Amino acid sequence: MKTILLPTDFSDNSLNAIDYAMKMFKNQTCNFYIMNVQRVGSYISDDLMMANPTGVVYDTVVEAAKVSVDKLIAKLVKTYKNEKHEFFSLVDYDNFTDAINQAVINNDVNLIIMGTKGASGLSKKLFGSNTVKVLQHCEVPVLVIPDEYEFTGLQDVAFTTSFQSLYNMQELRLLDEIIAKNSSKLSVLHVVLENSDPKELFRDVDFFNEHFEDVSYKMIETNVQDIFDAIQGYITNNNIKLIAMINKKHSFLETVFVEHQAETFAFNINIPLLVLPKRE
Fold this sequence. Notes:
This protein has 280 residues and is of the alpha/beta class. It is 36% helix and 24% strand.
């Protein structure tokens, strides 16, 4: 049984991510925790603060959020009518990342699925700030769903790596499960960045050949500035439905997708991104 955390602020992109989760795990037995995180700063208004002491403000805000989450769960039960799925409501009044991490620990969560608007506007930030923080600090896999992206199967899946560390099946277990349950074809994209050691190029090829049946390899030679275009080109040309990465400190992922997330990149991740934590 999967235990999946679905954070929501009731925005369209968070609701779309929930819809994706319902369809992706349609045939699997799952416990879904629908979670809303509130912060007092979102509710500071003259009327509210003058009418209620701080403790009552807390109770008022949390109770209103609980009502909204319960309504959403009722709608999900009615819409999807899936006996394999059970829903639980969570509301917290805390820092977003701390609340997510606490929910993961308390409920033995296996996976977080959350929505993001992707690159948009003048800043073209790759992810919203909450998404970036979850990717940086959570110890379970995170599946990020772009705004308006619909689930249409997982026939082709890509794993992006710079092969700077050895992998093991514990950290790739979820990817393996997804591929097995969806009969997916796996493409391993080796990204060769500037100053890469060519000796490391195929160090893990034997590992992937041993553990994944339908796997192909593609070498992408690029630099940090052009990496998004290079990966996006492969995604588009090969109809990739999901791209997965390992999140390791000082790795390709953290350097490019997190530390540089505020840079101006002409790139928009328009497919789901699965970020798997590195097991040290």
